[in-house]
Design brief:
By secondary structure, this protein is mainly alpha-helical. It is built from three helices and no strands.
Length: 108
């Protein structure tokens, strides 16, 4: 089976003012690269520049903590909806697995 053509790659479309596009095109031509390659280099430089900012790591950590809080809240909401049913289903699932093992001649 073949992999999708753009596996692991995202397409980014941006609007650029005409004058900046003209300069960008000229710079890419002078460097002998495509606009796509020039844009990729620009994005890489932007990410690298942001990483080196003194407060960037703290802001990234704060974003990660917020993601964790949101995930915990969603997990709690789901457990609130299905917690009793899920708790009751867990022993039944374990019991079914145990019975299957016995049918195969396995000891539990």
């Amino acid at each position: 089976m073949t992999e999708p053509r753009n596996s692991g790659v995202k397409t980014l479309g941006i609007k650029v003012p005409d004058s900046l596009h003209a300069q960008f095109t000229l710079v890419a031509q002078l460097d002998g690269i495509s606009l796509g390659d020039a844009a990729l280099r620009a994005v890489e430089l932007y990410v690298e520049t942001k990483r080196s900012e003194p407060d960037f790591a703290a802001r990234a950590q704060a974003a990660l903590e917020e993601i964790e809080r949101e995930a915990a809240a969603r997990r709690g909401a789901i457990q609130g909806l299905f917690g009793e049913a899920a708790s009751a289903a867990e022993p039944a699932a374990a019991d079914t697995t145990e019975r299957r093992g016995r049918r195969r001649g396995e000891q539990s």
